[in-house]
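Hi support team,

I'm filing this because I wasn't sure whether my run with 5-bromo-uridine-5'-monophosphate finished correctly. The job status page said complete, but I'd like someone to confirm that the output block is well-formed before I use it downstream. Pasting the exact inputs I used:
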Amino acid sequence: MKDKEQFFLKIYNLGILKFGHFTLKSGMNSPIYIDLRPIASRPDLLIKLSDLLLNEVPPHTFELICGVPYAALPIATALSLRSNIPLIIKRKENKGYGTKKMIEGIYKKGQKCLIIEDVITSGDSLLKTVIDLEKEGLIIKNILSILDREQGGIENIKNKGFKIRSLFRIGEVLKILEKKNLLKEKEIHIIKFFLQKKYIKNIQKKRISYEEKKEKIYHPIGKKLIEIALKKKTNLIFSADLIYSKKILELVNLIGDKICGLKLHVDIISDFSFSFINFLKKISLKKKFLLFEDRKFCDVGTTNYLQLHHGIHKISSWADVITVHVLAGSKSIENLNIPSNIGLITISEMSSYGRLSDDNYIRKALNISLKNSKVIGTVAQRKVDNRLLLFTPGIHFSDSIKNYKGNSYIHPNQAFIKKNCDFIIVGKAIYQSDNPKIVAENYRKAGWIAYENSF
Ligand code: 5BU
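And here is everything the job wrote out:
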């Protein structure tokens, strides 16, 4: 610790911490600005920093080093020279010509890479580097940052399943400066207050209850779904992916009490008819659940419109909720001419293994979802804005089908606790079971308990 403290005081003397009024890259105002770039001009300190970092992760655990551009590049280079472990370089932007590579250097798919970040705030730029390296088939085992601003970045990265450590934390650094009388009392007070405020903001990001969500969701179908969930104590949506209507009706009669929604893929039903739909509608009214059509419209607006209102299924005449992709842009779901008793669920991020949506796409899809008043929620594999309901397919109790035929599966506990999910969608775990009634009840119970335990 003494060693680390002495090192910190040396870099502090380079002017790496500034106090005043700053606007960070994220737009956030901050009374403290951290810039570790001056270290690059001091080879002696770069060597010392490399040694301290190598104490944090044993060199045999990685085969490559990559710095998050640009500030961490000299540090990653020094670490590479010090450890004799090869460096690779991540570009900030694709250069747009030549090889169009995002990662430069010599590497092979499957190699383990250590990532170095200078200062971690939200962890967003770090995640961009992680994604680009993973796209190249590299395995990210360890991430090291020099200074953690303690504003949620470390948790963000850990929640995504990565191991991350930081050499220094802001709280610890302030204590060192306080001890050495290097900060005025007033400065310490302002910074501590600022950090505390951010912490509160993080807490507020936690999940909200169905009752609170009902206040934030304006669409009547979104509100209705929440009311059903609360009344029946179920957040289970049954995905009846079966090809004969008789079988679907049998199952729905059996488990209709346990569910708040029934999801269909109407185009897989071999004997589709409107009398089937009428039966289903009657059961849904009696047992109180909504009808979801998982048609995943994904065309230009005019074609989406025709597919929704016409053809043999006339989806808009019976479905309460319909899924749509937003790949074709916001306009593709703007003029569908649906009545207010139909809600849309956008697909921002599928549950499938190897999905192509990246962070940028997902952010844009979520923005489109928030701006469209017909949208009640979305499918995503992450926490989303509290104004959207989050639907999670790919649910199974069994660990042995974590990755089954290209779909990835998680336990309801993970869906609620890690992702703040609102509704679980369960298909084969129920319809392929020997006793769908008991199994559906088990999923209902598990989903409800997981929701209650997720606060
Ligand atoms: P399963 O049998 O529990 O795997 O059924 C999942 C259902 O959810 C199935 O109808 C899929 O088409 C649907 N699904 C999904 O699995 N993943 C997604 O991202 C979306 C829908 Br969107």
